[in-house]
Amino acid sequence: MNKIRGVIFDLDGVIVSTDEYHFQAWNKLAETEGIPFDRGDNERLRGVSRMESLEIILEKATRGYSEEEKLVMATRKNEIYRESLKNLTPSDILPGVMDVLEGFRSRDVKMAIGSSSKNAQPILAAVGLDDAFEVVVDGTHIERSKPDPQVFSMAGEQLGLSPGECLVVEDADAGVDAGLAAGMPVLAVGAATGHSGATIKASDLTAITLDEMLNPACS
Ligand code: BG6
Ligand code: MG
Predict the structure, then answer these.
(1) Parallel, antiparallel, or unpaired: how do β-strands 200-202 and 186-189 relate?
(2) C-beta atoms surrounding 91 within 10 Å
(3) Ligand 1 pocket member 150 (CB < 6 A)
(4) CA-to-CA distance for 192 and 180, rounded, in angstroms?
(5) Is 1 a member of any domain?
(6) Looking at ligand 1, which residue's alpha carbon is closest to its atom 1?
(7) Fewer CB within 10 Å of terminal CB in the chain, N or C?
(8) Cβ(77) to ligand 1 under 6 A?
(9) For residue 94, which ligand has an atom nearest its CA?
(10) Which of 22, 53, 146, 151 to mutate to test the pocket of ligand 1 (most atoms within 8 A of CB)?
């Protein structure tokens, strides 16, 4: 029998290529402010909340920013990001995702989203996946962002499963840490494959079988 009965997917960078749009929006903001920012810096923003991402970017700023200025900057970034989301279509769904979702559905594996983003619902709607997940826990529901386990613990509870019955799928080091802290095995994809603690790894969802995901300890 399969050990895993539910899969909790991160959204940005796992289901949809919106991780790139986050980078572009932060890059534009940093440029306007004259703050150095590159793809290496961007790796640290994966999985963490908008305000925490801004704090990381401001580590390289040459002056201090008031709380009010920070709020204005975070709002501006979100406006730039939301503008790019207008172009989102099902073609932004990442490779292998549709087959994996279909495969789990046919095997009665429960599925959830566990995301730090406050934009998760409109993104799911824009790519046509608003009915694909039984449970969606996102940045509008949590107090503490990844690497805190809250988002995954809540999703697991709402699926009615114990932590050991859930597999987390993540592209962020902070998300891998969050899943492990929730007591769940974690499949690291993309940028997170460098994380030494991940239970299993795959470059993307085309590079792993459903059986490997459902029996992570045996692979
Ligand atoms: C995560 C992204 O999914 O959501 C982070 O990996 C982002 O980069 C975070 O900062 C919050 O997103 P939003 O859409 O609420 O600004
Ligand atoms: Mg992600």
Answers:
(1) parallel
(2) 8
(3) no
(4) 13
(5) no
(6) 47
(7) N
(8) no
(9) 2
(10) 22
Does ligand 1 come within 6 angstroms of the Cβ of 47? yes
Domain count, the chain: 2
Q: How far apart are CA 36 and CA 30, in angstroms?
A: 7
Determine the 3-state secondary structure of 61 from DSSP.
coil
Q: Which domain holds residue 52?
A: 19-87
Provide the pLDDT for residue 198.
Answer: 98
Residue 190 token pair: 């993309």
Q: Which long-range contacts (CB under 8 A, 24 or more apart) does 32-41 make?
A: 33/61, 33/73, 34/62, 35/60, 35/61, 35/62, 36/60
Say yes or no: CB of residue 18 within 6 Å of ligand 1: no
CB atoms within 10 A of CB 146: 28
Q: How many angstroms is it from 214 CA to the middle of ligand 1?
A: 27
Mean per-residue pLDDT pooled into runs of 10, the chain (219 residues): 90 97 98 97 96 98 97 98 97 98 98 98 97 98 97 98 98 98 98 97 98 86
Ligand 1 proximity of 115 Cβ (cutoff 6 Å): yes
**The residue to which tokens 């580590």 are assigned:** 59
Q: How far apart are CA 150 and CA 106, in angstroms?
A: 29
Same domain flag for 71 and 168: no
Residue with the smallest CA separation from ligand 1 atom 11 is 117
Tokens of 77: 């970034």
